[in-house]
Design a protein that fits this description.
The complex is a heterodimer of chains A (about 350) and B (about 80).
Chain A: E1 14-19, H1 28-43, E2 49-52, E3 60-65, E4 81-85, E5 96-99, E6 104-105, E7 111-112, H2 113-124, H3 153-163, E8 189-193, E9 196-201, E10 204-208, E11 216-219, H4 220-223, E12 233-237, E13 242-246, E14 274-278, E15 283-288, E16 291-296, E17 301-302, E18 308-309, H5 310-314, E19 322-326, E20 329-334, E21 337-342, E22 347-353
Helix pairs in contact in A: 1-2
Chain B: H1 10-25, H2 42-53, H3 64-70, E1 74-75
Helix pairs in contact in B: 1-2
């Protein structure tokens, strides 16, 4: 996190805000809701309160504006600059200006007003741009489902460094941005995807293309806005050019979620930890706790004689967090350890760190 | 891979880079003819500063990744402030 130069901050914690006008792109009640939610992002982690007022000299004045709106920082039409805000202070200090020519929305279409407002209010309170790609105060727009939004730890640390902690026995915490070369990095799920490797972690995905040295870190929502975070298992069915993702209690587009029991799992199975599909045999392996099932993609049914104990057929690899198959080997991830398993000899042939794919 | 910027108009790229660095990295451009002082190229310096901020490879050149970031929608507050 970065303070605005000069460390400006409000001298009071009980601030006021005024809404000058509304965008025509959203219902007024949805705009009010987005503003309220955005203010709560900060008031729930720092001892700040925001009182709505019609008073002209409210601390934070929120308005939608076009192009040149007399603050020496003209907007640039659709896309590009979405909004800006001013550091704490009298007059224009603390004010938030939103570009009326943007496609504001309350969901993943266009630009989500709540996300942009929450970011700009960070400036209104004295924060500058953070270079943490997962932070709310990172300069570029990144959609997150407002219902899943949790203020990241970097932003919590920043605002509390300015205004202190809230008066609560347990302080709020937020997600930390995964670092590809963090030796303690573990994964929720891993899958191949048309020759690339996708590692899922929280609301992030680390993407590794075999031809690129660096690893790309993105929000899952950047590619798939309707997907939830916290993917639990994933595998690619290369035959069908399909990637299947598993998460307990998913809420995704029409026709989904499909109950995993249609695959043949007993009702006692509530979630899948990991999965991989063997392209040559057309068999897909599902790992649940200390057991695994084998599914025949051609017959579309579970093979007889399952579940079996993982340790019996794969060795001492423990519970499987994530798994994928590439170049004829299966890679099992357990915590920060990765096992390379040879399905032909049915032996673990090597053990390495979970982050070995990232050229650290 | 997306097509590289070389297929785009060179001038368009330079304009994008200059505008971006003026807006968000305090690049001062006065468009006066000026003898180069000590070889210092402010635009390259500012471009490196931007690449460092975004965790990109610091090349001082408007490479593909840098242009991708510059084309992303974003907040209008500068990344570096006086």
């Amino acid at each position: 996190y970065v303070f605005t130069p000069g460390n400006p901050k409000w001298k009071r914690n009980n601030l006021t805000y005024r809404i000058v006008n509304y965008t025509r792109k959203m219902r007024q009640t949805d705009v009010d809701e987005a503003i309220q939610k955005a203010l709560n992002v900060w008031s729930s982690v720092a001892p700040l309160t925001f009182q709505k007022t019609e008073d002209k000299d409210a601390d934070i004045v929120i308005s939608f504006a076009y192009r040149d709106h007399q603050d020496n920082s003209p907007f640039d039409g659709p896309n590009g600059q979405l909004a800006h805000a001013f550091q704490p202070g009298e007059g224009i200090g603390g004010d938030v200006h939103l570009d009326e020519e943007e496609a504001w929305s309350k969901d993943g279409r266009g630009y989500n007003l709540f996300i942009v407002l929450a970011h700009e209010l960070g400036h209104s309170l004295g924060l500058s741009h953070s270079d943490d790609p997962g932070a709310l105060m990172y300069p570029t727009y990144a959609y997150t489902d407002p219902n899943e939004f949790i203020l990241p730890q970097d932003d919590i640390d920043g605002i509390q460094a300015i205004y202190g902690q809230i008066n609560a026995a347990v302080q709020p915490t937020g997600p930390k941005t995964p670092q590809a070369c963090d030796p303690n990095l573990t994964f929720d799920a891993i899958t191949t995807l048309r020759g690339e490797l996708i590692f899922f972690k929280g609301r992030y995905m680390l993407r590794k293309h075999p031809e690129r040295a660096e690893t790309e870190l993105n929000f899952i929502s950047l590619f798939w806005p309707k997907l939830p975070s916290g993917i639990q298992a994933a595998y690619e069915n290369i035959e069908k050019d399909e990637v299947l993702l598993f998460k307990e209690d998913m809420t995704v587009p029409h026709g989904y979620p499909k109950p995993i029991h249609r695959l043949g799992f007993p009702k006692t199975v509530k979630r899948v930890n990991a999965a991989y599909s063997d392209e040559t045999t057309g068999k897909t392996y599902f790992f649940v706790a200390d057991r695994y099932w084998r599914y025949d993609e051609n017959k579309k049914s579970m093979d007889q004689g399952y579940p079996r104990k993982i340790v019996h057929d794969f060795g001492k690899i423990g519970r499987v967090d994530a798994a994928f198959q590439t170049d004829g080997y299966v890679y099992f991830f357990h915590g920060t350890t990765q096992f390379q398993f040879d399905p032909r000899s049915k032996r673990i042939v090597s053990q390495r760190k979970s982050i070995s794919w990232f050229n650290c | 891979f997306p097509l590289g910027p070389e297929e785009k108009d060179e001038g368009q790229t330079i304009n994008l880079v200059e505008t971006y660095l003026q807006n968000f990295y305090n690049l001062q451009i006065d468009h006066q003819p000026r003898v180069r002082h000590g070889g210092k190229n402010h635009l390259v310096e500012k471009l490196k500063e931007m690449q460092e901020f975004f965790g990109l490879e610091v090349t001082g050149k408007p490479d593909l990744e840098t242009l991708e970031i510059m084309n992303k929608p974003r907040c209008g507050v500068p990344d570096v402030q006086q």
